[in-house]
Design goal:
Blueprint (H helix, E strand, L loop, with lengths): L22 H6 L43 H27 L4 H19 L5 H9 L5 H29 L17 H22 L6 H26 L10 H4 L12 H36 L4
Length: 306
């Protein structure tokens, strides 16, 4: 009977051998190092100049000739400028007949007009102001041009109303005031008064815009500026230079005061008179308006005003 031999311990068995991990294998499977980041020293923030953005746009960038006429509010603004300038022109005609004694009444009336129109159009009501607004980029060019046209139309309506009542009064009515001093050799003096007055008016308006959240404060500052100009211009022209009816500080209204000559020896004389009138009552005042606005902006930036 055959017997099975027990397997001895010498029987070959596959021994499991583990190779020791070398340093190279352990480093290969180790956690990768974090990427090195360069530490850059932060530079101190440069302080911006107070004049940063001096010539930047201050109106809506979307406003252009292609979009402005699609906005119904724009036509309301034009109507506001027409009505406001009409009322201002009526007031100026009345003031020129009543004299300086009515300057307080004039100031209250200007406040009422600006408060009534400001929410509709911003109440420029004067090409001097409109020119300054365009030059300092507070208003687009197309809006400014349309505002000036509306202001001239409003001034014409004011003259039409005033002159209609004058004609209805017949011989007993006061004569409608006119501007005739520049035709008498006072071109330089009248031009200087208009130019200086325009700078002051524009400066006051530019400062008043800072208080636009309070409409009454805005209107009071503007009216105060106009009253100041009227008093100073009247004293300079009447007391020192013996002139009268020579300043108006509103190109749109000035056109209604018959500043253009209606007769002359030849066409050259008439054309020269027209150029003189336009330069004194329109061109120079509008340049003064631009200077007044930039003077206000320069002063505000120099003081780092918010």
């Amino acid at each position: 009977m055959a017997t099975k031999k027990p397997k001895s311990s010498s029987t070959k068995s596959k021994a499991k051998t583990t190779k020791p991990k070398t340093a190279s294998t352990t480093t290969a499977k180790s956690v990768p190092e974090a990427p090195k980041t360069e530490v850059i020293a932060s530079k101190p923030e440069e302080k911006k100049s107070c004049f940063c953005g001096f010539f930047a746009k201050k109106y809506e960038e979307k406003e252009s000739i292609l979009t402005i006429f699609k906005n119904p509010k724009f036509y309301g603004s034009l109507l506001g400028e027409i009505i406001g300038t009409c009322l201002i022109t009526l007031l100026l005609f009345a003031l020129s007949l009543m004299g300086l004694s009515s300057i307080a009444t004039y100031s209250f009336a200007v406040i009422a007009i600006f408060v009534g129109v400001y929410a509709i159009s911003g109440a420029c009501l004067n090409p001097i102001i409109t020119a300054g607004m365009m030059a300092t980029r507070r208003m687009s060019v197309i809006r400014g041009v349309m505002y000036i046209i509306a202001e001239v139309i409003g001034a014409w309506l004011g003259w039409l109303i005033f002159n209609s009542f004058h004609l209805a009064g017949g011989d007993t009515a006061y004569a409608v005031p006119t501007m005739s001093e520049i035709a008498e050799g006072n071109f330089g003096i009248v031009a200087a008064i208009e130019f200086l007055a325009a700078i002051i008016v524009a400066f006051f308006y530019a400062r008043a815009v800072k208080y636009k959240r309070s409409v009454f404060t805005f209107a009071a500052v503007v009216a105060g500026g106009f009253a100041f100009v009227m008093v100073v211009s009247y004293v300079i022209s009447a007391a020192f230079l013996s002139l009268s009816n020579n300043f108006i500080v509103n190109p749109a209204s000035a056109l209604m005061f018959q500043i253009f000559p209606t007769s002359g020896e030849n066409f050259g004389e008439i054309f020269g008179g027209i150029c003189q009138a336009l330069s004194v009552y329109a061109i120079l005042p509008m340049i003064g308006g631009v200077i007044g606005f930039y003077l206000s902006d320069f002063m505000a930036k120099l003081s780092c005003e918010e």
